[in-house]
Amino acid sequence: MSTLIKGNLTGSGLRIGIARSRFNSPVTEGLLRGALRALLALEVSEDAITSVEVPGAFEIPFALDLLAASKKYDALIALGCVIKGETAHFEYISNSVMEGIARVSSGHNIPVSCGILTTYTEEQAIARSGDDEDNKGSEAAMTAIEMANLAKQLKEKK
Questions:
Q1: How far apart are CA 17 and CA 31, in angstroms?
Q2: Cβ-proximal residues to 50 (8 Å cutoff; 6+ apart), any chain
Q3: Among 70, 89, 99, 153, which one carries the catalytic annotation?
Q4: Interatomic CA distance for residues 131 and 16, integer angstroms
Q5: In angstroms, rounded to a whole number, what is the distance separating the alpha carbons of residues 12 and 45?
């Protein structure tokens, strides 16, 4: 018989770090509100949440790397928004950020959930960062909690 190990959505006792981009701030502030709302609803203590603001999405992996290196957090959340323009900049930034997030997660052995919006229009970004159930910051927060709990279970199983 196989064993199934799953994370849960109980945030009590967890420490969470958030790196948020200031660029496209109406959207990223909405993502942050959604993430904080979800974390608090899942019983993460407000004083166990650290939020770091960086200029743009490109700088998010650097901030995540510093947060992870501190060994103070059970999971990290990346929040940002890259909206496609008329040049290839969108693709370069999006790819770099996603690769950087994955590198931080695997390099530090810490769950990093991705709340980076990569949209074609500002309207799409606004729709995903509103004060409702479609907020991708909330989803990223729930993923961070679930993965932090999964990681704890797997580490205890060794």
A1: 14
A2: 15, 16, 17, 18, 67, 72, 73
A3: 89
A4: 21
A5: 7
* CB neighbourhood size of 39 (10 A): 26
pTM, to two decimals: 0.96
Residue range 133-147: mean pLDDT, rounded = 97
108 is catalytic: no
pLDDT tens-place string over residues 6-41: 999 999 999 999 999 999 999 999 999 999 999 999
Alpha-carbon distances, residue 51 vs 1, 46, 79, 90 (angstroms): 43, 11, 10, 25
Tens of pLDDT, residue by residue over 56-77, are 999 999 999 999 999 999 999 9
